[in-house]
Design goal:
Elements: H1 16-24, H2 30-37, H3 41-53, H4 56-100
């Protein structure tokens, strides 16, 4: 990447900050920038809301959860039942551990 990028000369209607931003965009980021530019206004508003209100860890957790949902969908109805039984079993184990197997000395 050029450490002294050339300022674009064909963008006279943009602010200086925007021109500097566009001059600093790397070649491998251009597709992501195109994706954002092609968004509808409501999609852009939603993206802005997500960026402002969620941390990176929150977004990683959401991504993992969506991947779990995609996995369940791939397995179909059987997968939903299987995952349901797994969740129910884990919940039952938690209840048993919390209420039945309490330490009697406490």
């Amino acid at each position: 990447m050029d450490p002294n990028p050339i300022m674009p000369q064909r963008l006279p209607d943009l602010s200086d900050k925007m021109r500097l931003f566009l001059a600093a965009v790397r070649d491998d980021e251009i597709e992501n920038l195109r994706f954002v530019v092609r968004m509808r206004d409501d999609e852009r508003d939603r993206l802005e809301y997500v960026i402002q209100n969620f941390t990176k860890d929150d977004l990683e957790t959401l991504s993992d959860n969506f991947e779990n949902f995609r996995s369940m969908k791939r397995f179909g109805r059987f997968g939903l039942w299987l995952f349901g039984f797994i969740v129910a079993g884990a919940s039952a184990a938690g209840v048993v551990r919390a209420f039945v197997l309490k330490d009697p000395t406490k």
